Amino acid sequence: MTDKQLSAQEAELYDRQIRLWGIESQERLRASNVLLIGVRGLGSEIAKNILLSGINSLIILDDGIVTEEEQHVNFLINRESIGKKIAEEVLIKAQALNPLVKLTADTSDPSTKDAKFFEKFTIVVATRIKVDLLLKINRICRSSNVKLIFGDVLGSFGYSVSDFLVHDYCEDQLKLAGKKRAYDGSAAKPENETVRVKSQIVFPELNKVLILPNTKQSVEHIKKVKRRNEYFFLMLILLDFRNRQNRNPEVSHKEKDIAVLQNIKAEVLDLYGVDHNKLDDSIFELVFGEVVPVCAVLGGVIAQEIIKGVSKKEVPLNNVFLFDPVRYCGKEETIA
After folding, report:
1. What is the pLDDT of residues 263-298, one digit of tens each?
2. Which residue intervals define the domain THIF-type NAD/FAD binding fold in the entry (predicted)?
3. pTM surpassing 0.70?
4. Cα of 134 vs its chain's centroid, Å
5. C-alpha torsion sign, points 111, 288, 152, 335
6. Where are the alpha helices (DSSP H) in 164-279?
7. Residue pLDDT, tens place only, 311-336
8. Domains identified in the chain and CATH numbers
9. 3 state DSSP class of 124
10. Cβ neighbours of residue 171 closer than 8 Å, sequence gap 6 or more
11. Are 201 and 169 in contact (CB under 8 A)?
């Protein structure tokens, strides 16, 4: 048995999902090595789902400390964890989800990692980092043929952005049978069949998708995208806020933070030539903290995209997913 082949124990444990997406896809998952940057509310949900999927290894990279607020939104830690390194504290509960996965905690600052660190992974999953660091990691990943997906939950709003490079995949499609005649001349019952279709998506580099004010980059290609979801701009506003403030909006600074968000909104919408009424200021009331059910939903979506990216089975989201904080539904946007 090679390292990529499933053992009898793994075949039994993953039996249901093997029936769902096939042995070949499961073996790809079994051989994959995943890096997860940030294991807070959203990160813990992503970790849970990909551990259960049957990957080979997961490194959790987070230099944060467990706070009292954190223990209310992260099911992988408990009250005794407050004040300790969060990456180390999640290990016990996380490992119990699937003892077959090699699980490691890294308490380093993600910004200190060099190119060699990232090139050993199959896919990098990033949360809660600034755009400049994200784009740096994306350049490294592209040079090493490593896929990347980035996401966040802020209040009731959430999003993900994928760069799966040149992604080849296959999907099962139902082929409808034509009408046939039986030997006696009567109409025979047509039999539909499932066929496997191969396709390809070329993903843009993230610096062509996440363009913020003061970056001196052209946004003309994004201006051409019809019916752009207003929450795409909310995502950019929140990313720019993090870049400037080195944090997410906080309830303890709510009035001040909303004023900053309003100023950034004007800059972002002016950059893209969008009417300021497209995004109402009242939406900023919904972007504080991490709403646990939204973490669960988006964590499931991102984990599913990771599985698609690694297994090369089914159509991945191309390339932005936005979770509506008002209607509680998601929408795919193809940008650049």
Report:
1. 999 999 999 999 999 999 999 999 999 999 999 999
2. 14-325
3. yes
4. 13
5. negative
6. 220-223, 230-245, 254-271
7. 999 999 999 999 999 999 999 999 97
8. 8-165+291-333 (3.40.50.720), 168-198 (no CATH), 206-286 (no CATH)
9. strand
10. 196, 197, 199, 313, 314, 315
11. yes
